[in-house]
Amino acid sequence: MNWESSAAETKDLGLIPMVIEQSGRGERAYDIYSRLLKERVVFLVGPVTEITANLIVAQLLFLESE
User: Which of 3, 17, 41, 57 is the Cys-Cys partner for 36 at CB 3.0 to 4.6 Å?
Assistant: First the structure.
C-alpha cells in the first residue's frame, strides 16, 4: 500500500487523528486540524478549488481576528 492510497482510504473512512493536550486543568482532546490551527498552522493538500480556497480564507480571517 502506498502513501496516496492509504491517505485516500483514511479520508474515505472519515478518520481524523486526535491529539491530547495536558494542562493544569486536565486533558483536552483536539482533532489534529484544530490543534494545528491553534498553533497558527494552515495547510492545503491537493488542488486549489473554490471550496478549498474558501476554507483557507476562512481560517486566515479567523486567525487575523484573534
Answer: 41
> d(Cα 28, Cα 19) in Å, to the nearest integer?
8
Name the grid cell of 21.
493536550
What kind and span of H or E run contains 28? strand 26-31
One pLDDT digit (tens) per residue for the chain, 66 residues: 444 544 555 556 678 899 999 989 999 999 999 999 999 999 888 899 999 999 999 999 999 998
Q: What is the DSSP annotation of 2-34? A: -HHHHHHHHHHHT---EEEEEETTEEEEEEHHH
| Euclidean distance between the first and the last CA atom of the chain, given in angstroms as a whole number | 41
Name the amino acid, one letter, at 12.
D
**What pairs with residue 31 in β-bridges?**
18
